[in-house]
Amino acid sequence: QAGQAVEQVDVFDWYGPSPPPPPDDTSGWPIYTDKQLAYRIRYPPHWTVRSEREGETAFGRPDVPGETFASVRVTAGDPEELADQLIASLSPGEVVSREWWPLAGYSSLVLVIDLPEGRFAWRFVPRHELVYIVRAVTDSGLGSFDQMVESFAFVE
What we know:
Blueprint: E1 31-34, E2 39-42, E3 48-53, E4 56-60, E5 70-76, H1 79-89, E6 94-103, E7 106-115, E8 118-127, E9 130-137, H2 145-150, E10 153-154
């Protein structure tokens, strides 16, 4: 009740906000599949695969040369420790959110940071001994990041 004092409250017994609504239809988007690292992700039709190197694939727009607007990197480690290392390696910024959300059937750490270059988001998805890190500039005006992330899936 409002105004009532309560003792012995377990802070872990609170419910978070509802998950975001499902993404718009991405069925017509191209699919990037990495069979070796066992994942796939759809990317907007106006984007291209910018680069592929061992453990990382970058996506961008052909009309914005030299810029990568999203990437998937696979590494080993603990998601919380990887997030801490990432924060320490960046220019000073404000952590907007750091919370766990489901993705591709796994619990993933969502990290959103405002940096001088813009707002960036990372999803750290632990699976077996690996962590799949999906990263993007979220306020680039190019949109589509949420739909792209929600299309991320593991393949066998």
